[in-house]
Specification:
Length: 511
């Protein structure tokens, strides 16, 4: 999987993503402490509102900026977003009012909404081979999971040395380092976009693409299933640890660590699995595995006592992480295959926006149901929603909607000599779909499974030798036979009686 890091451009882009994620993790811890300094016991309300503002920014800003992303150079847009995030993080330690926190969070997350889809759309152009791109997706998933474990630990270590407001300095340095790494590479130019039009159709181009293709409609349902699982783990883990089991804060880290470990394990295995198993089977299998995890969590919640419940909850959290990674890791491959190159940025922006719209729905649902009706009802509601979404995805994404990776062949170039110009077999080019009944993508011709090899073209030195062989073996015997036939016919015409039973002439020598 690490072989893709040999590519200089991708290696630096991955490093930019890693340092930016680390800076974001430090900002999350520092923002929690800042909210407590400003609002005291109302810090939870402040953080909840900030999280809602983050989701709203992702849902609204990403499609709007995606409409104009094709007009700007990728590197300029990415660096501008990083510098904007660094400037906002630099201002956060200076605020002393709640509304100021909300404004800065909106600006920060709007810049992230501009950065992430463009970054995701650039990776398929940097790594055009699907095998390399799959490994890049796994590394990205792994980076997110490691950040969720590494950043809090790093923040805790730094807080033993400095005050929390200094953590924002680490955030600023992370975004500046990301900008410097992006500047150091040359990004491929995106495919030419269609002719300029109004901004509204461009802003909704990605969403319309999702609604048009069956596999992308299924991806919408899969996003909802993953959001249900993420909401339960993110919002209610602390309730299970402190309220249900009465454990320490360290146990919360253990529970979240099990979720991350399950996700990382699958992220490491997925590249090899996708080399042999179609994306549809892996993705839909992950969605259906979520229902198993919800059933296990429901059993833990309904149980009244027993030492098995805490290990069972940790196992359920690990299954949640693994199932979510099974769904999320191949997502980039699906979008790359489904969206034309000119619409790729809009498609990734739509995925970014629509997936966070699902989280905007499930996070409040998980918190409100858990607080008012109890954890059992929260698990039941989210589990039913996830199961329904998974079954909907199975129905929306038929097996024939997208060929498996191993059935997609690269472009094949066939040339036939000796055929009249315009003959349908004269030249067939384009990607060949090997499925039964498939057609050539460029000409509509039936699939050709393999080309017929042409004989090698003779070299200049070999031509005299070939001419001599043809003369001695073909032309000379043909001339000899023709002369013999002519002489025999003449002899028979001059002396019909001068032949023996063997057909040879006996008196024709002297005339």
């Amino acid at each position: 999987m690490l072989s893709v890091l040999r590519d200089r451009t991708y290696r630096r882009l991955f490093a930019a993503q890693a340092v930016a994620l680390t800076g974001t993790g430090l900002a999350t811890v520092a923002l929690s402490l800042l909210a407590y300094d400003i609002a005291g016991n109302g810090a939870g309300r402040v953080l909840g509102t900030a999280l809602a503002i983050k989701m709203v920014a992702y849902v609204l800003v990403a499609p709007a900026l995606g409409a104009f992303a094709a007009r700007l150079p990728r590197r300029t847009l990415l660096v501008g977003a990083d510098l904007t995030r660094a400037a906002v993080a630099l201002c956060l330690p200076l605020v002393d009012q709640v509304w100021q926190v909300y404004v800065l969070i909106f600006l920060l997350q709007s810049a992230s909404a501009a950065f992430t889809p463009v970054f995701q759309a650039a990776i398929p152009d940097v790594l055009p081979e699907e095998r390399d791109y799959t490994r890049a997706l796994s590394l990205s998933r792994l980076a997110y999971d490691l950040e969720s474990l590494f950043s809090p630990a790093l923040a805790g270590l730094l807080l033993t040395l400095v005050t929390y407001d200094r953590l924002f300095t680490g955030t600023v340095l992370g975004f500046l380092a990301s900008a410097a790494l992006v500047v150091s590479v040359t990004l491929p130019k995106p495919a030419a976009a269609p002719a300029a039009g109004s901004a509204r159709p461009k802003a909704t181009a990605g969403a319309r693409l999702f609604l048009r293709l069956p596999q992308l409609r299924a991806l919408l349902a899969l996003n909802l299933a993953v959001a249900c699982a993420s909401a339960l783990v993110t919002v209610n883990s602390v309730v299970y640890v402190k309220g249900v089991f009465g454990l320490s804060a360290g146990s919360l880290s253990l529970a979240l660590g099990c979720y991350g470990a399950g996700s990382m394990a699958v992220a490491l295995l997925v590249p090899r699995v996708l080399d042999r198993v179609p994306d549809r089977r892996v993705t839909l299998g992950g969605a259906l595995l979520l229902t198993v995890a919800f059933a296990g969590t429901g059993a833990v919640t309904a149980g009244r006592d027993g030492s098995w419940r805490w290990p069972a909850l940790l196992a359920a959290w690990a299954v949640f992480g693994a199932a979510c990674s099974m769904v999320l890791t191949p997502t980039g491959r699906l979008i790359r295959r489904s969206a034309p190159p000119a619409d790729r940025t809009a498609a990734f922006a739509a995925q970014f926006s629509l997936s966070h719209a699902c989280w905007l729905l499930t996070y409040p649902l998980a918190g409100r149901l858990g607080a008012t009706a109890g954890l059992g009802w929260a698990v039941a509601a989210l589990g039913a929603l996830a199961a329904g979404a998974g079954l909907t995805a199975v129905r929306l994404w038929p097996a024939s909607a997208q060929p498996a990776a191993r059935d997609r062949h690269p472009a094949v170039d066939h040339e036939r000599r000796g055929l009249a110009p315009g003959h349908p077999h004269h030249r067939v080019t384009g990607p060949i779909d090997a499925r039964p009944g498939g057609v050539d993508a460029s000409s509509g011709a039936p699939p050709i499974m393999r080309s017929i090899p042409r004989p090698p073209v003779p070299t200049k030195r070999a031509k005299p030798r070939i001419r001599a062989q043809v003369t001695s073996q073909v032309i000379a015997p043909a001339i000899s036979r023709a002369c013999s036939t002519a002489c025999s016919a003449a002899s028979m015409g001059a002396s019909p009686r001068g032949r023996t039973a063997t057909g040879r002439s006996v008196g024709g020598a002297g005339g």
